[in-house]
Amino acid sequence: MSDLSHYRNIGIFAHVDAGKTTTTERILKLTGKIHKTGEVHDGESTTDFMEQEAERGITIQSAATTCFWRDHRFNIIDTPGHVDFTVEVYRSLKVLDGGVGVFCGSGGVEPQSETNWRYANDSEVARVIFVNKLDRMGADFYRVVKQVKDVLGANPLVMTLPIGIEDDFVGVVDILEQKAYIWDDTGLPENFVIEDVPADMVDKVAEYREQLIETAVEQDDDLMMSYMDGEEPSIEDLKRCIRKGTIALDFFPTLCGSAFKNKGVQNVLDAVVDYLPSPTEVDPQELTDEVGEPTGEVATVSVDEPFRALAFKIMDDRFGALTFIRIYSGTLNKGDTILNSFTGKTERVGRMVEMHADDRTELSSAQAGDIIAIVGMKAVKTGHTLCDPKNPCTLEPMIFPEPVISIAVSPKDKGSTEKMGIAIGKMVAEDPTFQVETDEDSGETILKGMGELHLDIKVDILKRTYGVELEVGQPQVAYRETITQPVEDSYTHKKQSGGSGQFGKIDYRIRPGEPGSGFVFKSVVVGGNVPKEFFPAIEKGFKGMMDSGVLAGFPVLDVEIELYDGGFHAVDSSAVAFEIAAKGAFRQSIPKAGAQLIEPIMKVDVFTPDDHVGDVIGDLNRRRGMIKDQEAGVTGVRIKADVPLSEMFGYIGSLRTMTSGRGQFSMEFSHYLPCPNNVAEKVIAEVKERNAAKK
After folding, report:
1. CA-based, 20 to 30 A from 669: which of 114, 145, 272, 574?
2. pLDDT at residue 455 greater than cutoff 70
3. DSSP readout, 611-677?
4. Cα–Cα distance between 53 and 40 in angstroms, integer?
5. How far apart are CA 350 and CA 237, in angstroms?
6. 112 phi and psi, to 5 degrees?
7. Closest CA to 385 of 330, 440, 450, 442
8. What percent of the chain has pLDDT over 70?
């Protein structure tokens, strides 16, 4: 069994283009996992192995890999930076014990860094900070440290200082050890010398060292007392205090360097070993019941406990379906039978592999603390708990944001419909924020995602990976119709054409129902003017007409119909006659009842930095939004509003423009409200035009 104290499960996360993947690449080279570093800008990095990632130079899905440093095992996940793929960051942080937040030395704390930082705070993940790209024009380590304090509301504990900046950046000073690490011009990570602190930096290093010691000794009262008496703590004691404070999220050790130029990465690896927690040092995952309520028990990280693991990612690759799992307790051997507590079904573990991006190494066993992939699991989705069948349990589930944008798609050639269905099914299993539904009104397939880039990539994957060419249309808003005033009316259906005829007379009241009530039918007929056996036919006739309203053919909502009288013929009346009478009555009376178009209203939650609040509120008002609430936080303001869905298309682009890329929003369906007349007239005209074109 491996010693769990030598495990580090870490994620590398940051804003787009801060250098996460390059940092991961350097770590793999330094730890001997790869022999040649691949560059992102050449499309050759190890963890960006999808075609779309190599082309666009961005990370789309998180990639896992394992390597070793100073006898410690690192399970590393390189996560995407783009806002549309934050689910990858969220689900990775959920199963990791520590993280490395990478910030660009010139860009500083960027929007996505804020989002990821918020996710990491929510997941209570200890982090070290790496200020990267100090060789870039405009790089300024001290400015980024200040931004971490001001923008993220975090407490950076500076551990290294840069020697030189931009083109003159040659190395870093380790403040704790008071040593300078200087690299030569070969660009090789191992070509460095350790020297004394440069003369011009002695005062600055002393100043930062004093701050570091003062912050660290706050973690230990005895050390603090002796320090105040003038006794300097040993480096071992300081490291112990820094580790304690880092795990408690009191501060974040902050290092600097240039991953691309191979400078300062070793110090980051040392910091991961020295300060980030092992699996046993983090608060164990809570166990919940079937409904998701905490049971008060926890999944203690230990090999002696029953087997418990969380499936945090599903990936379909050339070898079949891979289920990535984080094992929280117990051991797992090839051939074991495990229970999926969500479905209640057991499965046998055939093959287990350790992942290195898209390569794999076969395993015969794994234990608490490991992050591995199981090949060929069925019916397992992201967030499901896998456990020992004798000790069923449910780990705290993952909650994913709802998709905010949708597009209608159809295959270019009709033969690809089945192929498209299978491909989309696999993609939905892989990505919980990617959803699909069939629009009942138009029969179109609607794809829903987190943003325009997200859906753009999905369409690209369908085309390249699965060979399905798609026609991508404009999304349609799901309008509905209703009535606004009560009407009392009568309708007679009479038909005579030789032999027995058809006769049905109904007297009825139609009135607007309660919002959300749908269709309600009741009969108060007394005296047998309409026999009881015809009531179901009358209800069926009215209900059948609710699917298509009189204004533009949208489904009708919230109508109450009361049958109070009528008439029948002993020979000619039948269920069919009364059903036809009800249909005619609906067509006759709905226009009299003030038919009205209603539109879906979305509950919108916008996050914006303080300096853009006015612009964002003004824009929401222009979109016919009703502002409900404003909430100030450390890094910005949350604005809650109700906005019509039809006004929200393309909103993410406008929001990013208004907030310099720092704004974010989520939205979900709330309720239906009447459309203003000018909007209703426009929608009805468009529908008529579309219907005319079909004919």
Report:
1. 114
2. yes
3. GGHHHHHHHHHHTT-EEEEEEE-SS-EEEEEEEEGGG-TTHHHHHHHHTTT--EEEEEEEEEEEPPH
4. 9
5. 47
6. -70, -25
7. 330
8. 86
At 27-61, the pLDDT tens digits run 777 877 544 444 444 444 444 434 554 454 444 45
Strand, helix or coil for residue 692: helix
The mean pLDDT of the chain is 83
Find the angle CA(453)-CA(457)-CA(458) to the nearest 5 degrees: 115
Give the model's pLDDT for residue 246.
96
Give the pLDDT of residue 2.
Answer: 66
Q: Kindly state the DSSP code that residue 258 receives in the 8-state scheme.
A: B
pLDDT of residue 87: 64
Quickly tell me which residue has 């009262």 as its tokens.
221
**% the chain with pLDDT above 90:** 33
**Residue 446 and residue 495: Cα distance in Å, rounded?**
44
**Which amino acid is residue 120, in one-letter code?**
A
- Cβ–Cβ contacts within 10 Å for residue 426, how many? 16
DSSP class of residue 257 equals: -
First to last CA, the chain: 72
SS3 119: helix
Pairing of strands 320-329, 359-363: unpaired
DSSP summary character for residue 31: T
**Per-residue pLDDT tens digits for 412-431:** 887 788 888 888 888 887 77
- Lowest average pLDDT, out of 161-175, 256-270, 303-317, 451-465, goes to 451-465
Q: Specify the residue for token string 């499936």.
A: 311
CA dihedral over 525, 531, 536, 538, signed as positive or negative: negative
DSSP string, 47-64: S--SHHHHHHTS--S-EE
| DSSP run (H or E) holding 271 | helix 265-275
- Give CA–CA dist 382/691, Å, rounded: 42
**In the prediction, which pLDDT does 243 show?**
95
For the residues 76-91, what does the mean pLDDT come to? 63
User: 27: closest CA among 1, 47, 50, 2?
Assistant: 47
Question: Exposed, middle or buried, 303 (CB in 10 Å: 0-12/13-18/19+)?
Answer: middle
List helix spans (H) across 57-122: 86-95, 111-122
* CA 99 – CA 74 distance, rounded (Å): 11
Q: What share of the chain is helix, strand, coil (3-state, %, to 5)?
A: 30, 35, 35
CA distance 263 to 19: 13
In a 13 Å sphere around the CA of 135, the CA atoms on its Cβ side amount to: 16
- φ, ψ (nearest 5 deg) of residue 565: -165, 180
Q: What is the pLDDT of residue 313?
A: 79
What is the rounded distance in angstroms from the CA atom of residue 179 to the CA atom of residue 196? 5
